[in-house]
Amino acid sequence: MANFFDASDISPSKKRILQSALTLFVEKGFFNTSIPDLVEHSGVSTGSIYHAFKDKEALATELMHHLLATIEAEQADILARHQTVKARYFALVEWMLRFAEAYPDVEQFILYARHKEFMPSVKPICSAKPFMTLRDVILEGQETGVLRQMDVMVASSIAYGSVLRLIQLYLDGVLSTPLMTHFDELTEAAWRALAAE
Amino acid sequence: MANFFDASDISPSKKRILQSALTLFVEKGFFNTSIPDLVEHSGVSTGSIYHAFKDKEALATELMHHLLATIEAEQADILARHQTVKARYFALVEWMLRFAEAYPDVEQFILYARHKEFMPSVKPICSAKPFMTLRDVILEGQETGVLRQMDVMVASSIAYGSVLRLIQLYLDGVLSTPLMTHFDELTEAAWRALAAE
DNA sequence: GTCTATACTCAGATAGAC
DNA sequence: GTCTATCTGAGTATAGAC
User: Do B127 and A174 touch (CB under 8 A)?
Assistant: First the structure.
């Protein structure tokens, strides 16, 4: 899961702009990143940026789109490799933790940027497909009877809220140990809360 | 828990500015709220705003300070009224849910604004006192043996991450039912994950 | 498609009268 | 302490040559 912009038909300069945008938006935030900042960091001129993207907002939107696409692909891959609900849940959590450790900047941007502040048209992140995928695994568990009956959103909050919270603590520098250190404790506790008696 | 700026020695116009700032920062975000916006909404002039606050960032910082102070006071109140760890945890969660329903805007600003983007000097929110207080209840439970031994941060993530996640879903409009509907399911599941055998 | 130069807007902040 | 008027600069976006 190396490069987020490898896919398809992106021109080289567009790729460099997206790469710089990811770095700078994460580091300083969308509003604190000016076009001149992007020009300096990417080595691509103002004119070319506006040739490649309608405006700054469109640039952010497209960036978001690419990141989500990569994430969706990885999730699909995990689901394909694991069949039972328990295996899927554990594998997805492991992937979430590893992803956050490998790409803290991307994780930060995806999870905690206030997207609607600079992309008014885009839907809230938790309505995005990757979050649906996570929820669907819980739903599947409830339907097959592996997980106890309760409101799906509540069950999902237990299942992933704890994980996301730990990731946030990690990203904020509160955690002193690597994320994966806590994989077993975390998943076993969550599973205890969710599994059918 | 009505007014966040009632306390102490705030001048009337300062109070109006803070009130407007809370509304607008939440509605449109810090960067999308201009000083002219604040002037129009509060009815206080530019000059008076800059008389009351050093600059826009200081305004945001002071706003944050007031909100956190109110929250700390309410938490202290809850702890004073409940003695056992279980009672305290359940009461704190109930308060979190009720608070989010009563003051969605404040909750949104406290939890999900990217504070460091406009208040570079302020520490991450999860290092703030209210979050310490939540964690300390878990710590107390582990020390008294009511809760099972595990990393405190992991236990806290289970205990409150699920709650915060549900709140986020609520604030994003994904939940169709009132938050308190899920109080029992949520707390019982979390407790199941955390309680000693 | 890429660049440089530039136009235009409007935000943040200040000066200074009352 | 409150206001109006104003400055200054940064930042988005465009024009137009190559």
Answer: yes
